[in-house]
């Protein structure tokens, strides 16, 4: 049977209203509208308390809200027998009304309270019941209504008390739990406890089931004992391990708690109340505080200063070990007010007064006094103490330190003493400045001449190089006993003197290209011993003193030998060839105080060479000029005046210095300082003239001066080398790409053009990392010489050079190339023991025929094609070891054919034969080479050998 309940309730004489979960009016019947004097359209969608407002703290407001809360919370019907609730009438007046209400829950599909049906009756008249004819009956009815009202008020107060208890229980900062029965089943749990153990389902579960991770920690057994004996148990700082989430780790907590038994009216234990506090953070803070205090004490005991603490009233309560160790006092004997016993008697009263004032005012304590050391001496200390205050600013304690300032005090005293000698120090400083000015003037003179020397060096040395080459070649064609040979030899000696003069000019101006390395000066002196003694003559005695543990020096070996010989010969001349000469070599550390006015030197280790003679000495006016260029005391024609200035420039350029000390009648000492090398000394290497030889390798010579280029090429050719020339780096790069088969590049440094010689070298070595490059230059400041030193790893030959010097440097450069060379990309031993099969593609029949003959002469088998497509077809049909192809073909370009071949034959060597300057595909495809038309059999042989098509032969190796 289906019923229309809305129609039934609409027809009911009693008032009904339907509210949703937000207490909004969903529906009301006519009786409700009549008793409340409202229109349905006004009510629908409104919150009930908006239409019928009441103070939440008033009796009516609390009673109605509590009833609604019980219905929605418990899902059961709730009754309000009598509730006073005033409402506004239609004319805006407020009437005190009394109601009797029943609140019925309407459940949703999930069992939740979806709606609330209020059945309400206006019982105002029955509550007051003052009608005359019905006085007795009305009074009795009214009394019942008032009693119902009182009961309702009592229930409200009881609900209020329960709600207050629940609020206190839930919001308590300490955790609270009630466990019921011998199995300790959770009945109530507050939020603080859930925070302690983690959010989990506890209510209704025994403690062993709800908190399984607590097993074995003693708490379950303690609960059992409390329940059995009825005696409370409490603990402080108890440690427990709980798992706040199912997958999380066990976490350590520290708690203070009490297990309080709950008894019934018969005194029987029916449960246990647990109350306590989570003190984990507090315990952690205590631990950290103890650790911090221990760290402070450890730090204070190990700090270089004395550390102490005092109470707020100024009594010392802790003193670090350093104080007792320094003073020799017994540990603990200085606390309280005993600390002044170790203060100097003259400082004691002032120190005590200052400390008393600081303790009284709470200001920073800072003073200086002398503290007695264990040996009885007194040392000055800076004593400071800072007040430590709490959050309210109250003084809690003091922390103080004693810092040793005895050395500073002594320095201050010494400074005061020095002030009395100010005039003397000013005079000394003036002398130093004068010396510095003299050195600066000398440096400027050297710089001026150096600028001149550097400017003419390039052209002058080029001229000398042309003369050297031409004279060398001319001498080869003239018999040794010919009168013309004598003149040529004289001309060669003149060239050598010119070269020596140029070298001296560059040396004193610190612009000669040096090649420093680690050398043992003992080896160097032994090497020139014969030369030196021969130069000194029989009338001179030489004594050489060297220590066993001599540091290696970092200097150019040849220049060092020249400097020593120069100084020795000067000493010989001073002693007029008779007397004793001493050479002393030793290790020397030079401090900053010795380098005043020496901006080019740094403090550190040096190797010192002293040349000591017993000659007549040098007058003061002459001594100031001995290092000046062109200054000499020798007769005209007996010296250039460049000897000592050359040594001076060499020493400065090497990072050292040369000084001279002399007095008339007391002899002269010249001291040469050279920097200490960081690595072990390298053996001296001098070439035996009988071992100087040429070779058969191929050389690319790059030189912009045509005469120098021709002369150098002639020398190289005469030494047996195959020579190609280029007038600048751009032409050299073009030549290298057209015909890359050469073994060495010899290049001038300073040349005109788009590229520098250094950029050319870097480009070539990027393509051929093993390619050796020898630089030749007559200029002192260029791309490979920095601060007068040749860059590390650079092969360098200074102009002018002789044929022998060129021969030695070329062999050195060639031997410096790595053993593994890119000239043979496939090792000869991996080549199969059969003739190599070459596919030759050339559209010109005559050229193709000629190339086939050359290839056959190299021992290869040849298959000829005349077009690109025929070449591709041949490669599909047969196996070949290499492809030699023209670039300009009638159907497909040689580069396109090579690109397709590389896709199917990634390891096949490809040689382009072309008249073009560049073939981009050769660089892009890899394992390719270019031969520039016209070319010969030797050119092809070199390329085939480099690409590993032919085995390495003596002829190919020499190319």
Walk me through the topology.
Layout: H1 5-11, E1 16-20, E2 25-28, H2 30-36, H3 40-43, H4 48-51, H5 59-74, E3 78-84, E4 87-88, E5 94-95, E6 98-107, E7 113-122, H6 124-128, H7 135-171, E8 175-180, E9 185-189, H8 191-197, H9 207-210, H10 219-229, E10 233-242, E11 251-263, E12 269-278, H11 280-302, E13 306-311, E14 316-319, H12 321-327, H13 345-361, E15 365-372, E16 378-389, E17 395-404, H14 406-419, H15 422-476, H16 483-508, E18 517-519, H17 521-527, H18 529-536, E19 540-545, E20 553-555, H19 557-574, E21 579-590, E22 604-613, H20 620-623, H21 643-653, E23 657-662, E24 668-675, E25 698-702, H22 706-718, E26 722-726, H23 729-738, E27 744-748, H24 757-767, E28 773-777, E29 785-786, E30 789-790, E31 795-798, H25 803-816, E32 837-841, H26 845-857, E33 861-865, H27 868-877, E34 882-886, H28 894-904, E35 910-914, H29 920-925, E36 928-932, H30 937-946, H31 954-958
Parallel strand pairs: 19-21, 25-26, 25-27, 27-28, 28-31, 32-33, 32-34, 34-35, 35-36
Antiparallel strand pairs: 1-2, 1-7, 3-6, 4-5, 6-7, 8-9, 8-12, 10-11, 11-12, 13-14, 13-17, 15-16, 16-17, 18-20, 21-22, 22-24, 23-24, 29-30
Helix pairs in contact: 5-7, 15-16, 15-22, 16-21, 19-21, 23-24, 27-28
Descriptive notes:
This protein has 31 helices and 36 strands. The chain has 959 residues and is α/β, with parallel strands linked by helices. Strands 2-1-7-6-3 form a five-stranded antiparallel sheet. Strands 9-8-12-11-10 form a five-stranded antiparallel sheet, sandwiched between helices. Strand 4 and strand 5 (94-95) form a beta hairpin. Helix 16 (483-508) packs across helix 21 (643-653). The longest helix is centred in the middle third of the chain and has 55 residues, at 422-476. It is flat. The protein starts with a helix and ends with a helix. The model is unreliable at 130-138, 819-829 and 953-959 (pLDDT under 50).
């Amino acid at each position: 049977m289906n019923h229309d309940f809305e129609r039934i309730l609409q027809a009911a004489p009693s008032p009904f209203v339907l509210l949703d979960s937000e207490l909004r009016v969903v529906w009301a019947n006519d009786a409700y509208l009549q008793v409340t004097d409202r229109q349905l359209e006004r009510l629908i969608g409104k919150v009930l308390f908006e239409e019928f407002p009441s103070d939440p703290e008033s009796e009516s407001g609390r009673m109605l809200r509590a009833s609604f809360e019980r219905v929605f919370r418990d899902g059961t019907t709730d009754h309000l027998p009598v509730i006073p609730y005033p409402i506004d009438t239609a004319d805006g007046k407020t009437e005190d009304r009394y109601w009797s209400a029943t609140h019925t829950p309407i459940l949703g599909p999930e069992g939740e309270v979806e709606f609330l049906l209020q059945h309400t009756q206006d019982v105002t008249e029955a509550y007051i019941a003052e009608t005359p004819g019905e006085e007795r009956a009305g009074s009795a009815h009214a009394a019942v209504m008032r009693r119902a009202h009182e009961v309702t008020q009592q229930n409200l107060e009881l609900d209020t008390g329960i709600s207050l208890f629940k609020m206190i229980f839930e919001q308590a900062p300490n955790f609270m739990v009630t466990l019921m029965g011998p199995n300790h089943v959770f009945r109530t749990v507050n939020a603080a406890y859930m925070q302690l153990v983690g959010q989990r389902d506890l209510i209704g579960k025994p403690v062993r089931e709800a908190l399984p991770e607590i097993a074995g920690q003693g708490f379950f057994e303690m609960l059992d004992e409390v329940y059995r004996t009825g005696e409370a148990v409490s603990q402080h700082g108890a440690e427990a391990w709980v798992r706040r989430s199912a997958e999380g780790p066990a976490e350590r907590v520290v708690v203070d708690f009490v297990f309080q038994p709950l008894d019934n009216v018969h005194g029987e234990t029916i449960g246990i109340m647990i109350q306590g506090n989570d003190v984990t953070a507090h315990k952690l803070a205590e631990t950290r505080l103890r650790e911090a205090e221990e760290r402070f004490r450890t730090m204070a005991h190990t700090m270089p200063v004395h550390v102490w603490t005092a109470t707020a009233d100024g009594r010392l309560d802790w003193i670090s070990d350093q104080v007792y160790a320094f003073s020799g006092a017994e540990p603990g004997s200085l606390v309280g007010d005993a600390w002044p016993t170790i203060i100097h008697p003259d400082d004691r009263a002032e120190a005590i007064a200052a400390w008393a004032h600081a303790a009284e005012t709470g200001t920073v304590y800072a003073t200086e006094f002398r503290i007695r050391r264990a040996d009885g001496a007194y040392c000055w200390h800076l004593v400071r103490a800072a007040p430590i205050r709490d959050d309210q600013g109250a003084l809690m304690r003091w922390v103080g330190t004693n810092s040793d300032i005895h050395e500073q005090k002594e320095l201050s005293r010494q400074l005061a003493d020095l002030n009395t000698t100010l005039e003397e120090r000013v005079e000394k400083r003036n002398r130093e400045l004068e010396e510095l000015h003299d050195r600066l003037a000398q440096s400027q003179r050297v710089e001026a001449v150096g600028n001149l020397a550097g400017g003419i060096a390039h052209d002058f040395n080029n001229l000398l190089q042309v003369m050297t080459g031409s004279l060398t070649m001319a001498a080869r064609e003239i018999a040794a006993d010919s009168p013309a040979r004598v003149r040529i030899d004289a001309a060669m000696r003149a060239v050598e003197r010119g070269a020596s003069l140029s070298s001296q000019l560059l040396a004193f101006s610190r612009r000669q290209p040096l090649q420093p390395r680690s050398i043992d000066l003992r080896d160097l002196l032994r090497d020139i011993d014969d030369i030196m003694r021969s130069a000194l003559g029989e009338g001179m005695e030489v004594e050489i003193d060297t220590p066993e543990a001599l540091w290696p020096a970092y200097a150019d070996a040849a220049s060092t030998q020249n400097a020593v010989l120069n100084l020795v010969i000067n000493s010989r001349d001073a002693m007029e060839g008779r007397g004793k000469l001493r050479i002393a070599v030793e290790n020397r550390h030079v401090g900053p105080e010795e380098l005043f006015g020496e901006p080019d030197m740094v403090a550190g280790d040096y190797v010192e060479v002293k040349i000591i003679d017993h000659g007549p000495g040098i007058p003061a006016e002459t001594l100031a000029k001995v290092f000046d260029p062109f200054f000499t005391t020798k007769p005209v024609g007996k010296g250039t005046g460049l000897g000592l200035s050359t040594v001076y420039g060499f020493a400065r350029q090497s990072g050292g210095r040369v000084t001279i000390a002399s007095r008339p009648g007391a002899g002269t000492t010249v001291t040469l300082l050279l920097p200490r090398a960081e690595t072990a000394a390298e053996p001296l290497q001098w070439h035996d003239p009988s071992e100087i030889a040429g070779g058969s390798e191929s050389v690319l010579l790059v030189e912009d001066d045509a005469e120098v280029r021709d002369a150098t090429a002639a020398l190289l050719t005469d030494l047996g080398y195959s020579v190609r020339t280029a007038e600048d780096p751009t032409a050299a790069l073009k030549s290298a790409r057209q015909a890359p088969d050469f073994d060495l590049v010899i290049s001038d440094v300073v040349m005109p053009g788009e590229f520098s010689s250094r950029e050319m070298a870097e480009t070539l070595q990027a393509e051929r990392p093993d390619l050796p490059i020898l630089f030749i230059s007559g200029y002192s400041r260029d791309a490979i010489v920095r601060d007068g030193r040749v860059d590390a790893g650079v092969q360098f030959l200074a102009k002018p050079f002789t044929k022998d010097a060129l021969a030695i440097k070329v062999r050195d450069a060639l031997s410096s190339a790595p053993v593994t060379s890119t000239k043979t990309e496939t090792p000869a031993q991996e080549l199969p023991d059969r003739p190599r099969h070459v596919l030759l593609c050339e559209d010109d029949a005559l050229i193709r025929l000629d190339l086939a003959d050359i290839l056959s002469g190299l021992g290869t088998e040849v298959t000829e094609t005349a077009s690109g497509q025929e070449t591709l077809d041949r490669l599909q049909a047969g196996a070949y070891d290499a492809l030699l192809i023209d670039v300009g073909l009638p159907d497909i370009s040689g580069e396109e054919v090579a690109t397709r071949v590389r896709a199917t034959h990634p390891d096949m060597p490809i040689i382009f034969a072309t008249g073009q300057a560049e073939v981009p595909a050769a660089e892009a495809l890899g394992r390719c080479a270019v031969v520039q038309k016209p070319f010969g059999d030797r050119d092809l042989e070199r390329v085939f050998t480099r690409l590993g098509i032919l085995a390495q032969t003596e002829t190919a190796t020499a190319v």
